[in-house]
Amino acid sequence: MATSKITNLSILDDAVRTAGIQDAAVTTAKTSGVPTLFRPNANPILINCNMEIAQRGTSATGIGQGDSGYHTIDRWRYDEGGSPSQEWTQTQETLTSGNAWADGFNYALKMDCTTADSSLASDIYEAITMYVEKQDLTLFKKGTSSAEKMTLAFWVKATKTGTNIVELQDQVNDRAISIAYTISSSNTWEKKVLNISADTTGAFGTGNAVGLKMRWYLDAGSEYQSSALQTSWASANTNKRATGQVNNADSTSNNWHLTGVQFEVGEYTSATIPPFQHESFADNLERCERYYQVVGSGTRADNLMYFYAYNFDGTSTMFGAYNFRKEMRASPSIDQTSGTNYYTFKCNNATDDFDGVNGFRGGIAGGEFYLSGGSSVGSSSAGQAGVVMGKDASSHVALVSEL
């Protein structure tokens, strides 16, 4: 029968049953080469790998020395070492064409070199990094005799062709492994599928601290590539981390882009890698809010910061209770943009302006803010409800519990 004749409609309900399959009809030899997908979790192991969520903003300029941290896209961090003179603009890029877009990705992280350095100092490196909690890595069984192989796949585009390095750093046991990939065509989206060997030494353990750093190098000085690349798990060695890495910062014409990152249990090829696990925007945002939650931003009505002013002292200070939308990884700190009269407190048909949030105390589910800097608010008194909102378009208050 021609294969075109076999369709869902031509197979009767219950025609294929366990009882109808002869003993030993399905064997290992017959299924050789068919990948076994191991995804017991409902969600991907990594977060925001389609680069869709950018709570801090969609663009940041002048990124370079001293700027290690998160700037635009949630969970994706810029890291640097030494004293790099090169600088970048990082953006959440909207895709409208290309292979990654055709594969279902609407956004990418883009690094645009704006200040170049064609002769790197030996101690310099720059990278885009994903930090992963220990407790989210259990599936890999690392440090046991049953340790699993890993596969890392992603879409990447770069102006500069040549060798680039991804490094996995076990932060619990100070072990590492590096994998090289090649940019074959300039400014063209290419999908890379990298295999990572199993490691029977050093378990990630449990808890909410960082267990693994996954680092995509942008550039690296000679200290990071003076010995052969460390392509098997071993004790971390700075000299072997990024051997062969090209300098993506050697020209202001250079860009580097990343999207569609997936991290799988098991070994896959470009032909067998399972489809990317797309999440709804709401689910993706909720997972990001474990690490970063915007309380209020700008002057938009839907970004009001609602507090209950349960201890307004009638002159200049109040305290506001706040319940988190999502339980956070650990007790958070404040990330805010402050300035003269950036915020206002409304109560009893009157307003009081203030410059910023002075502090926060609480746990992983909620707490209270300290707000001060203004004068009295009409005839309000302790225990009365009020609304805190941004008055300046640049106002921004968020809670941070990053790794």
3D structure, described in words:
This protein has 403 residues and is mainly beta. The chain folds into 2 domains: 59-287, Jelly Rolls (Sandwich); 291-400. It has 3 helices and 23 strands.
Order of helices and strands: HEEEEHEEEEEEEEEHEEEEEEEEEE
- Using the coordinates above, name the CATH class of the largest domain: Mainly Beta
What spatial form do the alpha-carbon principal axes imply? globular
CATH structural architecture of the largest domain: Sandwich
Strand content: 35-45%
The helix/strand class is mainly beta
Task: Round the mean pLDDT to the nearest integer and report it.
Answer: 88
Calculate the terminal CA-CA distance, rounded to whole Å.
58 Å
Instruction: Give the fraction of residues assigned to helices.
Output: under 10%
Summarize the structure.
The chain is mainly beta and 403 residues long. Helix content is 4%, strand content 38%. It is globular and about 70 Å long.
Topology at a glance:
Layout: H1 28-31, E1 59-63, E2 69-70, E3 77-81, E4 87-94, H2 99-102, E5 107-115, E6 125-133, E7 150-158, E8 162-170, E9 175-183, E10 190-196, E11 210-220, E12 234-235, E13 255-265, H3 281-288, E14 292-297, E15 305-309, E16 317-323, E17 333-337, E18 343-347, E19 350-354, E20 356-362, E21 366-372, E22 386-390, E23 396-400
Antiparallel strand pairs: 1-4, 2-3, 3-6, 4-5, 5-13, 6-11, 7-10, 7-13, 8-9, 8-11, 9-12, 14-23, 15-16, 15-22, 16-21, 17-23, 18-19, 18-22, 20-21
